[in-house]
Amino acid sequence: MRRDAFLSRVAQATLTAKLPVPPVVPDAPLELPPVDLVALFRAQAQAVNAVVHGPVTRHGAARAVAAIATGHDATRFLAWDDVGASGVVSALTAAGLQRIDHLVPSGSRREHNLSYLDVDVGVTGSVGALAESGSLILSHGEGRPRMASLIPDIHIALLDTSRIARTLAQWARENGDSPEKTANLVLVTGPSRTGDIEQELNLGVHGPRHVHIVMVR
131 vs 45, 136, 164, 182, CA distance in Å? Predict the structure, then answer.
């Protein structure tokens, strides 16, 4: 078909096209049978190759994160200012790891960004999780850089078990104003994966190869 004929048909279609009627959104979420959200989240996260630890106490979270990092022979880490438990950064530095600052110094952006190439571990908190898919919900902004969950080969996320929702619809209903308070809201479901190369599943091509989730109660 000639280009002008094709564009003419598109133009005519836009004059007569009608948008479909949107589905009715129920006032209340669907009633689902009760389930152990922690157990369901663990099973679903493990099914997508995440490693789930705990639940541990808030005092034990720092030891757990340090043990994971040293178990991977990590030497440098990038962390949120508030990961949801105290002492995490101190435990990592005490274990011999060097913290890479996420703040970019004035006049040396290139040199600073190149330092991220040597970051082994990224440590973040999470604002929630979805039990049915094993997904973490990360909210980025000041003091919570996206790079911590994107650049390093190892992503360690702390998750308060009280923030696990059954579904995305449930979490959205309970946290409807969250998107307005963040620079970036992301769902992380296991390590980075792609099947573009010869249709074979590969982990860590576009992001972390290892995702560790430390559940905190």
Answer: 8, 9, 6, 22
User: pTM of the entire structure?
Assistant: 0.83
Nearest to 151 by CA among 122, 111, 124: 122
Q: Which among 46, 174, 184 is positioned nearest to 124, based on CA atoms?
A: 184
Percent of the chain with pLDDT over 90: 61
pLDDT in tens, 184-210: 899 999 998 777 767 777 776 778 999
Query: Which residue ranges form the domains of the chain, and what is each CATH number?
Result: 35-216 (3.40.50.10420)
Report helix, strand or coil for 35. coil
Contact partners, residue 117, CB within 8 Å, separation at least 6: none
- Which has the closest alpha carbon to 134: 102, 106, 166? 166
Nearest CA-CA partner of 215 in 56, 68, 48: 56
